[in-house]
Structures are given as C-alpha cells and as structure tokens.
Write a structure and sequence with these properties.
Blueprint lengths: L1 E5 L5 H13 L3 E5 L23 E4 L5 E3 L1 H12 L7 H33 L5
Parallel strand pairs: 1-2
Antiparallel strand pairs: 1-3, 3-4
Helix pairs in contact: 1-2
C-alpha cells in the first residue's frame, strides 16, 4: 500500500502523482498534510519530505519514501514496469522528457499558478 501525501488544493505536481498512481493501478491512500499556524506542515512530515513540500509518497511494501513529482513518477514506473520502456534508447527518451518537464514546464506552470492566485486574491482559481 502506498500513502500519497498531499494538500486539499491540488497543484499540477500533485495531480501528476495521483494520475500516475491511478494509471498504474497501485492501491493507495490519500493523506492530507494539514498546515499549522504560520503555514508550516507538522514536524513529523519532515521525515517524509525534508523540504516540506507535497506530493510525497510512502511505499509500505518496500519502505521507500519519495518526494518530488518527477522522482515519484519514475519510482512508480519502475515499481510497476509500466509507462517506462525496457529498451535503453526509448527509455532514455522518456526520462529525457520527464526531466525536461520537471525542470522547465513544471516550474513555469507553478509560477503561473502562483501569480494567478496572487492576482485573484482570496478567490479560488
């Protein structure tokens, strides 16, 4: 069983992890990280995600704890043997695009999301 650590407002990174869990068919439970006053997560969450961000997963079958969406996607693909080709050349193409997405597309979308929220004020986007 896998625990998916998340917050109640889903970001693109959280969505990536939950979609991958769904696509691979792995059983999982959702654990909401409730922030304390000052916007900080609970102290015990640091054992799951040292940088205090979501998503993160804990795989009780293997004991693995993974944070960062790209690492989660790669781990789940490796674990299930799905969505990651065995052929080295084709596999490197998939990993290349995964790295491109997490290093470029993801951050730009995160900034856009942040500024849309900032512009929208207290309303939800």
């Amino acid at each position: 069983m896998i625990d998916l650590y998340t917050i109640r407002s889903a970001s693109p990174n959280i969505r990536k992890a939950s979609i991958m869990l769904h696509e691979t068919g792995l059983p999982y439970t959702v654990k909401y990280v409730e922030k304390r006053e000052g916007g900080k997560p609970p102290d015990d969450f640091a054992a799951i995600s040292p940088n205090a961000t979501v998503p993160a997963i804990q795989d009780h079958d293997t004991g693995a704890i993974i944070f960062e969406s790209g690492a989660i996607l790669h781990y789940l693909a490796e674990k299930t043997g799905r969505l990651l080709p065995a052929d080295l050349k084709v596999r490197s193409e998939v990993i290349k695009w995964l790295m491109f997405e997490v290093a470029n597309v993801g951050p730009v979308m995160g900034e856009l999301y942040h500024y849309m929220l900032l512009e929208a004020g207290p309303r939800s986007v």
